[in-house]
Task: structure prediction
Amino acid sequence: MSEQTKTETAAPKPTSFHDTAEELIFERSRAGRVGYRFPALDVAETKLESLLPGTLLRDDIEGETEVSEVDVIRHFTRLSKLNMSIDSGLYPLGSCTMKHNPRINEAMARREGFAYSHPLQPEHQVQGSLELIWLLEQTMKEIFGLPRVTLQPVAGAHGELTGILMVRKALAKQGNPRKVILIPDSAHGTNPASAAFAGYTTKELKSNSHGTLDLDLLEREVTEDVAALMLTVPNTLGVFEGQITKIADILHRKGAFLYCDGANLNSFVGIARPGDMGVDVIHSNLHKTFSTPHGGGGPGAGPVGVAESLVPFLPAPTIERRDDGTFYQDFNRPDSIGRMRAWNGNFGVLVRALTYMRSMGGEGMRRMAEIAVLNANYIRARLKDAYHLPYDDPSLHEVVFDDKTQLANDVHTLDIAKRLMDFGFHPPTIYFPLIVPGALMIEPTESEPKEELDAFCDAMLAIAREAKESPELVKSAPHTTPVRRLDEARAARQPILKWTPSR
Amino acid sequence: MRYIPNAGIDVREMLETIGVDSVERLFDSLPKDVKLDRFLDVPGPWSEIEVRRALATMGFRNVRTDDKPSFLGGGVYLHHQPACVDQMLLRGEWLTAYTPYQPEVSQGTLQAIFEYQTHQCLLTGLDVANASLYDGSTAFVEGVLLAQRVAPKKNKVLIATSIHPMYRETLATYVQNLGLEIVEIGMGADGRVDLAAMKAACDEGTFGVAIQSPNFFGVLEDYDAVAAIADAVKARKIAVVAEASSLGIVSPPGRHGFDIAVGEGQAWGIPMSFGGPYVGFMVVRDDLKRHMPGRLVGETVDVDGRKAYVLTLATREQHIRRAKATSNICTNQALIALAANMYLSLLGRKGLREVASQCLQKAAYLKSRLAATGKVEFPLSGPIYNEFTVRTKRPARELLKALAGEGILGGVALDTWYPDRPNDYIAAVTEMNGAADMDRYAAAIAKAL
Result:
């Protein structure tokens, strides 16, 4: 039961704001409280028994909350304060492109015309929504340098699966879907998972000493069994595959496709276009490059651009414009892989992305890539004497260090990451890419002013000093966060995955 | 550039530290022959004033559903979202954080997911919920794949044709290369799944049986009867819930022995927004938890013994298991799950019942008003929640067009997916519809037919 009667209360102690552990909303519940009001039922009430068979009528939802609006606002405000976020400072999660989320995007997505647009309204009632999707496709086509883009996929991984399913269907149509997808060992985990769900086996390609693809190895591995190579550009070290046009040639000669994981598109948007490099299919994460908010883990959007050879296989429906300027959904696509999801993708995310693209324009998009790369290289320059660079090739929007130097004092990447929190920064991505043991993958994005980058670098340098002079301080960090290091093994060994009334 | 702080002197100082003389030099690693010598040919850069003007114009080209009587459903419903939900979502601490990989600085998001998981379990009567999936259609797919994963020697799944057509289309896309056999089971005159056909198709090779309740035609299925058929061959029972507010008054699948509940959480006050972003949910029996797709948050303690929350059982996931992961999902719908958590918390024990009760009662009222016109029939006799199938003497599309002319969005024609039903459409009712709207609807029907 959610009702709790506290007969004894411990004497309150002074707390700092970080000590404000917030109970669960279920534990705040008090019998009789309400957080809503509906209009009175204005129709004659029918007896429940005559509407629902007894076996289908549920009784009380035992354990559900009884709280007021005040309780809810206090609860979620207090909880929110336990999060770090971009709004509060640099959030350098590598490969996640944690850039500023402009609020005009939010305002546009909430306009009534969009927010109250039902996906099953007849076409003529939703011309604005269809136009928006069509316009976004035109813009993405120019960004990718490819002839068509589907906006149905709702996340990067969803886009990957969409892309690989198209590859498979195209090959099957030629008579042989083939068996293998090649994936470099530096790739995101979603790549092999997506390939597997498209019915392929995956083969890992070992990176060369520069962390990039070994072309001789690729030549050997691209057989008639290979459907595609999934290549992250620039790769997860932030290093651009300078030989990309040759890579595309090798694949194309054997009838295989080049899939580009566009997670890192922010580093070269407006500088160069995947389509011009020989890429056949690419997804982009709108929540990365095009500023739609990450929201604690979504929603996102993962549009996929394709070369002519894959256009017939795009998910249906596509959005088309008639000569008279009206828009429609084209379901008549006989070679389509089908539908990747109900409705038209994460439309609200698409509204935000188009808003951002218009705010930036071609000039702004180039500028964002330039400053993102400048910011990352500035961090690299300031930290390269204190942290070891496992690959010293020129990098673009992110830089990957490791903990080799600090290991001398038994200070690991995890410790460095946790200590950063004490300086007020969210840690970088750690232990990824897998080809760098103890990786610290730092992506600042173009959103950071120089003084924020300096504060971050100063903190990293301070930690490097601490690692030498007082390693225990680093190894026991964080010291100032709402909670300290967690017993993660216990969480997995005896999983408690929900609140239960009896506990 | 208002979103890019560094300019002028900052850039010069930074270049000096890096040791290059221009920003262009930082891109020397890109092959020269693929570099653009122009800006991308896209509109902008625009001011907020220009952006607002352009987007507003597009928005006005849509017919809004909230300022007129609307009875559109078919998997997306207009329910009221309390104002405080959206206000809270706009807090940067929620909006601009990411996946809580670092629990010490993400306890807000982690605890919120733990609460969301708890709501899902309470509502469905099942044991373990994940942090969210993309939407109802992909949650349905993941539910089917989960059922197969735990019965690797079986490959047949029975799918009711009364499951949302787009959910079934999505399943067909996902499994086209996975070798699963999908057997579609039709429905009887009551609008419920054809139990005899299901029983005949259900054999030792069947790993799962999937139904939707209320189904796409609005009819509530008989969970117990379906469970009995599946149990005879130890097939997993999968319930799809596309109208999640029904869980406030309809007995949940977990109470009837179902193993997997999947569905769409849009009905928990999420804006319809032309199809997304919504939130897919999955709740399963305890024995399936280590085979689930998606993120899970669990409770633990920190080094000082304080209660805390953390992502857990991650060895199922793509960043660890790669090609052998239970799903390729990474980014999900966390912010919408948060909105659902807030909505469910505000309404809670009594409010969820009340909103469901209003939907049920008002749908019954509309049905009786339409019946009273003598102009329409209800071809399916099974029990309903808030949506029902109407048969008219004219093609449904024509009738709905005539109603739209009267300013009423009367429902969704079924012939798109069921060509054998040209005169049928579905109408949905929620707490947003008042008696006056429904009386107007009945009058318009009387006039149009």
Summary: The domain at 349-448 of chain B is CATH 3.90.1150.10 (Aspartate Aminotransferase, domain 1). The longest strand of chain B covers residues 206-212.
